[in-house]
């Protein structure tokens, strides 16, 4: 368990303890537990703030499923995998965005039900978001890590049964070890000129 999760659990317990203690005080005043809110007692929102931070931080730390296979010394095949759960937040955000933009007969602007949008345009919207996701993964994860050389090729892309799989072929920098030039010996060819060769050159 990480340090942040330990703190989170401790704050949850603290909130429960505070709530229970406040309820006891209210009962002691013969106010009844049902009037807890009416006396203006509020539990500090620290737990809620930390919960929001903790969950968002967990999402940021989620790693993209990327596998790498060396094809040659200068070529790599990179496969990116994701599922509907990984893309759900992007899909939901896109549907809400289009809900404000799509106009359909019988509905006021911005009031078209999301369910209807999914039914009519769901496939196209999801594919658009998948393409955006793939581009983001390539630019933010693949490029900084592998530094592709030359033109990258997308050799395969599939979205079936809520499973996304994309394959890239990239050029890679060749790996080699530099040798200390001072330790390299080079054979120098020396040709001794004969009198016959000199005479031949003079007679030309």
Description:
The protein is an alpha+beta fold and 204 residues long. The chain is 50% helix and 19% strand. The chain is built from five helices and four strands. It has helices at 3-28, 46-61, 84-101, 114-146, 195-203; strands at 65-72, 75-83, 149-160, 163-171. Strands 1-2-4-3 form a four-stranded antiparallel sheet. Strand 1 and strand 2 form a beta hairpin. Helix 1 runs antiparallel to helix 2 (46-61). The longest helix has 33 residues, at 114-146. It is elongated, with a radius of gyration of 34 Å. The termini are far apart. The model is unreliable at 29-41 (pLDDT under 50).
Brief digest:
With 204 residues, the chain is α+β, with helices and mostly antiparallel strands.
The major pleated sheet works out as:
4 strands, antiparallel
| Major sheet: arrangement of strands | 1-2-4-3
Strand residue content: 15-25%
User: What's the gyration radius in Å?
Assistant: 34 Å
Task: Sketch the topology as an H/E string, one letter per element.
Answer: HHEEHHEEH
Through-space gap between termini = 91 Å
Low-confidence stretches: 29-41
The portion of residues assigned to helices is 40-55%
Enumerate how many helices there are, as a single number. Answer: 5
The oligomeric state of the chains shown is: single chain
Shape: elongated
Distinctive features:
5 helices; elongated
């Amino acid at each position: 368990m990480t340090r942040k999760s330990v703190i989170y659990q401790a704050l949850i317990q603290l909130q429960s303890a505070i709530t229970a203690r406040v309820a006891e005080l209210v009962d002691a005043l013969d106010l009844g537990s049902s009037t807890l809110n009416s006396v203006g007692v509020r539990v500090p929102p620290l737990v809620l703030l930390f919960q929001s931070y903790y969950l968002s931080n967990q999402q940021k730390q989620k790693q993209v499923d990327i596998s790498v296979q060396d094809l040659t010394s200068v070529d790599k095949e990179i496969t990116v995998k994701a599922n509907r759960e990984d893309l759900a937040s992007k899909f939901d955000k896109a549907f809400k965005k289009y809900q404000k933009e799509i106009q359909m007969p019988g509905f006021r602007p911005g009031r078209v039900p999301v369910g209807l949008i999914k039914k009519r345009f769901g496939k196209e919207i999801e594919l658009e978001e998948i393409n955006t996701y793939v581009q983001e993964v390539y630019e933010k994860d693949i490029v900084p890590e592998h530094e592709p050389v030359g033109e990258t090729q997308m050799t395969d892309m599939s979205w079936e049964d809520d499973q996304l799989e994309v394959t890239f072929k990239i050029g890679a920098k060749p790996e080699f070890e530099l040798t200390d030039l001072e330790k390299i010996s080079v054979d120098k060819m020396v040709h001794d000129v004969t009198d016959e060769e000199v005479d031949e050159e003079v007679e030309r």
